[in-house]
Amino acid sequence: xxxxxxxxxxxxxxxxxxxxxxxxxxxxxxxxxxxxxxxxxxxxxxxxxxxxxxxxxxxxxxxxxxxxxxxxxxxxxxxxxxxxxxxxxxxxxxxxxxxxxxxxxxxxxxxxxxxxxxxxxxxxxxxxxxxxxxxxxxxxxxxxxxxxxxxxxxxxxxxxxxxxxxxxxxxxxxxxxxxxxxxxxxxxxxxxxxxxxxxxxxxxxxxxxxxxxxxxxxxxxxxxxxxxxxxxxxxx
Length: 236
Prior knowledge:
Strand content: 25-35%
Radius of gyration: 18 Å
Shape: globular
Helix content: 25-40%
Strand order of the largest sheet: 6-7-8-3-9-10
Distance between the termini: 34 Å
Order of helices and strands: EEEHEEEHHHEHEEEHH
Low-confidence stretches: none
């Protein structure tokens, strides 16, 4: 069963067509959306969340139109920019956003525990490390136990150890039943995904498991597969 279905999606921004007639289906587990900066990843994620104006096509999430009222507490979204308040503690941030979403007080505690930040509940967010701040933003996105979690470049700027820990957390979240869609421009993160979407210039140029994508191109790593796909498209 597909968690997300995209049919004929076209997005125009600033007079430029960023995505043109895209068809796509995304299932459960951890799906990575990988491609260079500026290829349209954030635009696609915004379309899935329902905050992007689209020129044509349809996006269905969990059986409902993207951005519709029934999805408000079923889709969690973490943007590239920080969505938390630096002058509040971790717990104060979570309680604030829980009230905004009309969730019970216990939801903040549940989200805190889900990202292993219980020991930092009273820490002021502005004094946390980059990895801890990312976890706070992730906790906000997890409020209400969404069925789909959309993460836009959540590991950017983090060191390899923190990136490893966050990816392990993404998989624990997926194992608990939440589908995770995470974007990145770092190709070495591809092997951490259950399924991959490789994006280039607004188009999905490959979709499958890392093993399937590598085997199709006869290469040993996803970056080489991506380059082979790009070269094939440019020579066609």
